[in-house]
């Protein structure tokens, strides 16, 4: 098992290039299952989750070529040979559920072992299934699996109880080849939804309204292969913005899209960090900043992203005064609190709220990456803690950050990846 050794590094400074979005590329990869010919995806990040999705698609019948020298993927699926996603892969990644919509649309049947991924809350898939059912599929739930079957999918009107990102994506992918028109309300509005809709529309789909709370889809008979470039990762962007803020550094983020990180910009500015949108990229400068505590509340887009909550909380522990964090998207997304407390942070939690009494010095110790983003939070806390911080379970971090330690090292971060020695008993 590998771990990161992180040392107090002083202010991180320099430039970083933001990679393609993990949460955009995964549904786009799944959507390639909707046509027979080979699609080309550019700006694809090299990540463990992308590898898992490549293997998943191969098992389903796709030919997948990974060319990471050019950050390109070529994916084509002449025939869907397996309508059941393999459990060994599904258990590694929750986003595996995204193959359901396309397999159902193309073959009329899909079987899914119940998904895994980050351990944050129960994370059910009832809304995905509700969408498939509205499109005319019969849903059968067995022990440890769920199946959707339909002779043909039919356009529908549907109101989602919650704007789930994954459910919105899955329902769009199922509806694009359905007969007739679908109108889906209260959908997720994340930039990754817009990127998926842009990809599908290029393929010949007829989707309107992506990025708003209502999406209208006119079903088409067939989709064609296209080339598509993935949007920059807004959570990686936010992570490096906070890396500058927490270390009181100054970082230029190339390839960042400020429009996608508005709530993060707003909150960092509120704390006293200077942010400039320049021709070269986004500059985040916290050198000599007099920082003040603030409150955050996570919400579906365009609200403050839940994926930035743990990372921002690590930053808030370094600011004098009281900050409040309210997590409304996921239950049980405070597992990083215990790890930050082990480093010396003063945090009180009650249900989905945390009160941070900031300004207590952090000390290096052994901590766990309890999920992907919490892992990044531990690394950033390690850069400002006294001494050395050992971050274990880093496979979570490697699921979602491309060349994370190379990028941090280039900014002056002291971080090494070492293989943990297993003691003989
Ligand atoms: C996606 C992102 C993840 C991010 C999350 C919220 C990907 C690959 N992952 O995850 O990084 O943290 O959006 O921004 O894009 N829910 C239900 N029933 C469902 C589906 C969801 O109750 O059928 C609930 C979940 O338990 C959770 C909330 O809705 O409380 C949000 O989940 P959702 O938006 O679906 O997140 P994901 O698509 O899994």
Question: What is the first-to-last residue Cα distance?
Answer: 17 Å
Hetero groups: uridine-diphosphate-N-acetylglucosamine
What is the CATH level 1 assignment of the largest domain? Alpha Beta
Bulk shape = globular
Contiguous uncertain segments of 5+ residues: 117-121
Q: Give the count of helical stretches.
A: 14
Radius of gyration: 22 Å
Round the mean pLDDT to the nearest integer and report it. 95
**Which structural class should the secondary elements be placed in?**
alpha+beta
Could you tell me the CATH topology label of the largest domain: UDP-n-acetylglucosamine1-carboxyvinyl-transferase, Chain
Q: Architecture of the largest domain, according to CATH? A: Alpha-beta prism
**How much β-strand is present in the residues?**
15-25%
Number of domains: 2
The level of helicity is 25-40%
3D architecture notes:
With 425 residues, the chain is of the alpha+beta class. It has 2 domains: 205 residues, UDP-n-acetylglucosamine1-carboxyvinyl-transferase, Chain, CATH 3.65.10.10; 208 residues, UDP-n-acetylglucosamine1-carboxyvinyl-transferase, Chain (Alpha-beta prism), CATH 3.65.10. 31% of the residues lie in helices and 25% in strands. Strands 21-22-1-23 form a 4-stranded mixed β-sheet, covered by helices on one side. Strands 2-14-16-15 form a 4-stranded mixed β-sheet. Strands 4-5-3-13 form a 4-stranded mixed β-sheet, covered by helices on one side. Helix 8 packs parallel to helix 12. It starts with a strand and ends in a 6-residue tail after the last strand. The site of uridine-diphosphate-N-acetylglucosamine has 22 residues, from helix 1, helix 5 and helix 6.
């Amino acid at each position: 098992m590998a771990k990161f050794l992180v040392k107090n590094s002083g202010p991180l400074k320099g430039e970083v290039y933001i990679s393609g979005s993990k949460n955009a590329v995964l549904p786009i990869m799944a959507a390639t299952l909707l046509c027979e010919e080979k699609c080309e995806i550019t700006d694809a990040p090299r990540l463990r989750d992308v590898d898992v999705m490549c293997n998943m698609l191969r098992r389903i019948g796709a030919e997948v070529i990974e060319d990471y020298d050019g950050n390109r993927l070529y994916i084509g699926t002449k025939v869907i040979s397996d309508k059941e996603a393999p459990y060994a892969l599904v258990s590694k990644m929750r986003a595996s559920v995204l193959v359901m919509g396309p397999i159902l649309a193309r073959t009329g049947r899909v079987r899914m072992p119940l998904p895994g991924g980050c351990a944050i809350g129960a994370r059910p898939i009832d809304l995905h299934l509700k969408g498939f059912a509205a499109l005319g599929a019969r849903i059968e739930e067995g022990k440890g699996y769920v199946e959707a079957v339909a002779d043909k999918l039919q356009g529908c009107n549907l109101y989602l109880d919650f704007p789930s990102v994954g459910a919105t994506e899955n329902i769009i992918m199922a509806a694009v080849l359905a007969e007739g028109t679908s109108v889906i309300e209260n959908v997720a509005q994340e930039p990754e939804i817009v990127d998926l809709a842009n990809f599908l529309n290029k393929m010949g789909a007829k989707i309107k309204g992506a990025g708003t709370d209502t999406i209208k889809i006119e079903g088409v008979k067939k989709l064609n292969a296209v080339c598509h470039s993935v949007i920059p990762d807004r959570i990686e962007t936010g992570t490096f913005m906070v890396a500058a803020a927490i270390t009181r550094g100054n970082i230029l983020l190339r390839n960042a899209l400020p429009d996608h990180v508005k709530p993060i910009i707003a909150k960092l500015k509120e704390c006293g960090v200077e942010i400039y949108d320049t021709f070269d990229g986004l500059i985040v400068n916290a050198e000599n900043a007099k920082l003040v505590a603030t409150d955050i509340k996570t919400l579906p887009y365009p609200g403050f992203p839940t994926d930035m909550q743990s990372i921002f909380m690590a930053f808030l522990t370094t600011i004098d005064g009281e900050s409040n964090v309210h997590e409304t998207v996921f239950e049980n997304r405070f597992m990083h609190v215990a790890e930050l407390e082990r480093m010396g942070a003063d945090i009180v939690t009650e249900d989905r709220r945390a009160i941070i009494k900031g300004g207590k010095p952090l000390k290096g110790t052994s901590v766990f990456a309890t999920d992907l983003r919490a892992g990044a939070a531990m690394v950033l806390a390690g850069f400002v803690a006294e001494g050395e911080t050992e971050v274990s379970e880093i496979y979570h971090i490697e699921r979602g950050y491309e060349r994370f330690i190379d990028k941090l090292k280039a900014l002056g971060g002291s971080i090494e990846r070492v293989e943990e020695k297993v003691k003989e008993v």
